[in-house]
Amino acid sequence: MEKKVETNNDKSFSLIDSMITAMFLPKEYGKLLKVSNKKIVRYVAVVVLLVCIIQYAIWGLGSIAGLGGIKGIVMNEIPEFSLQDGKFYFEEKLEKKDEVSGVYLLIDTSQKEFTRDDVPQNMLQAVLVSESNMVVYNGISGLGGMVETQSFDIYKDLVINNQSVADMSGLIYLALFFFFVLLYFAAIVEYLFYALLYAGFTYFVIKTIMVDLEFGDVYKITLFAQTIGQIVEAVTYCLGIELLYMAGSIFAVMTTVVLVNRAIQEFHVTREH
User: Fold this and answer.
1) b/e burial code for range 160-188 (CB count within 10 A of at least 16 → b)
2) Span between the terminal Cα atoms of the chain, in Å
3) CB count, 10 Å around CB of 82?
4) Which of 66, 67, 51 has the alpha carbon at shortest distance from 238?
5) In a designed cystine with 263, which of 26, 175, 241, 251 is the match (CB 3.0 to 4.6 A)?
6) Which residues contact 122 (CB under 8 A, 6 or more apart)?
7) Phi/psi class of residue 145: alpha, beta or left (left: φ > 0; alpha: ψ in -120 to 50)?
């Protein structure tokens, strides 16, 4: 009879109810602990999906749409390029050098060929692209670095240019979708990992104040407590302002800690009475 009552309560506690409670009602977290594990898994999946849509899909699709879609980007935003008869052409010389990270990029098709000697000193990674080849350098401490050279001559039967890439926009959108799926699963792993860190720290602390909670319950609390912080952080990321995103990240940590703390305090008071 008791099992039947718990099942009915579980069914009546919807996903929206869970989200509202998780974000704003830490004193009601006891209800969340009664939700089935299956619903908790679904909850995490939906929350992370929402975060990924805000952080990646909305921002990415908005940027692409604002530039006229994939075709507009390839035809209007990317300088003219082509790979034909084993020779690469890029309309502009592109050179990027980051002294801090040790990364160097050079695309200069006015040069016939690049070699290892063309890699700047003290670079950890470098990519150099000429008319006929591409040199990739990866520095290894004490070993002098590894160099891979790729000749474009092996692609002499291919013809690639702005127009041919634009004509494959459907495949590019499909590739972006699969990339989004990979980001989604990576975000789930990250969400679960951070919940584990929060739970481990919290469980260690509550043992010192004799709160009778199992680690599994603490872990569930941290899964729910991350909700509002993750959503706010995703929104600040989407806005594209670095300082604002840093503030959003700090907010995410602080709100999670506060919600977990208040939920634990409520359990402590309830157990005392």
Assistant:
1) eebeebbeeeeebeeebeeeeeeebeebb
2) 26
3) 17
4) 51
5) 26
6) 102
7) left
Angle in degrees, 0-180, between the axes of helices 242-272 and 215-225, rounded to the nearest 10: 140
The count of other CB atoms within 10 Å of the CB of residue 94 is: 13
Contact 194, 226 (CB under 8 A): yes
| Rounded-to-integer distance, Cα 199 and Cα 220, Å | 8
What are the residues facing 149 on neighbouring strands? 135
194-to-96, 173, 256 alpha-carbon distances in Å: 35, 31, 10
Tell me, yes or no, if the pTM score tops 0.90.
no
Residue 30's contacts (CB-CB under 8 Å, 6 or more residues apart) are 266, 267, 270
SS3 126: strand
Tokens 């240019």 belong to residue: 161
Candidate from 19-28, 97-106, 130-139 with smallest mean pLDDT: 97-106
Question: Tokens standing for 241?
Answer: 């302002």
Q: Residues 157, 172: contact at Cβ < 8 Å? A: no
Pull the structure tokens for residue 29. 């977290």
CA 134 to mean position of chain CA atoms:
29
Mean pLDDT of the chain: 88
Q: How far apart are alpha carbons 196 and 202 in whole angstroms?
A: 10
How far is it, in rounded angstroms, from Cα 186 to Cα 163? 34
